[in-house]
Specification:
Blueprint: H1 2-16, H2 20-33, H3 38-45, H4 49-62, H5 81-93, H6 109-120, H7 126-135, H8 152-171
Helix pairs in contact: 1-2, 2-3, 2-4, 3-4, 6-7
Length: about 200
């Protein structure tokens, strides 16, 4: 009676999970409860008998929750909390050039790796630095550029008057092409025309 309830509970859990490993664990325990040997259950899910025994033991002690994997904490950070705080301050409020990386305006993972190695003598991979920066609340963004000599009044006039007028001429076939000088490079070997 108890075994039938456990089997139904496992079947329900199998139908609601989208985690393949968890599904395999539920299936292995269910097969053992149905009378299959641990070796047979292991063969079905592609694991060895010892692993299935471990699943069954965890299920017996903690039920369904005993089969759910806990998030692995991974290796502890090599940097201290103070060093991590200093890293955030450097990356968030200074350019690479300001901290000694010549001709570098934007932070890259490679530059942060070099910074950590130079400042604290710890070697990190770029993936490790990406994970570290994410954990510290920093996110990757692409720099946006603004034109220093841009005249906002002229830009507004262009958007509201000049461009709509040119667009109308283009649609009415009064003009054939509309080229923007600031964004287009015309090579002398390109032919502008119709064939």
């Amino acid at each position: 009676m108890e075994t039938e309830r456990q089997i139904r509970e496992l079947e329900k859990a199998m139908n609601t999970t989208d985690n393949r490993r968890l599904y395999e664990r539920f299936l292995a325990v269910k097969l053992v409860l149905e009378g299959h040997t641990r070796k047979e259950a292991g063969h079905t899910i592609g694991r060895d008998e010892h692993t299935v025994s471990h699943y069954v033991k965890n299920y017996c002690h903690n039920g369904i929750q005993g089969l759910v994997s806990k998030k692995q904490s991974g290796r502890p950070s090599r940097l201290t909390d103070e060093q991590e705080a200093e890293l955030v301050q450097i990356v968030a409020y200074h350019t690479p050039e300001e901290v000694g990386f010549k001709s570098r305006a934007n932070w890259t993972l490679a530059i942060v790796c070099d910074l950590i190695l130079r400042e604290w003598s710890y070697g990190y991979t770029q993936k490790g630095v990406a994970d570290l920066l994410h954990r510290l609340g920093l996110s990757w963004t692409r720099p946006t550029y603004t034109l220093k000599k841009a005249d906002s009044k002229k830009q507004q006039v262009f958007l509201e008057e000049t461009f709509p007028s040119l667009k109308k001429k283009l649609l009415n076939s009064d003009i054939d092409h509309l080229l923007f000088e600031d964004e287009t490079m015309i090579r002398d070997y390109q032919a502008i025309g119709c064939t």
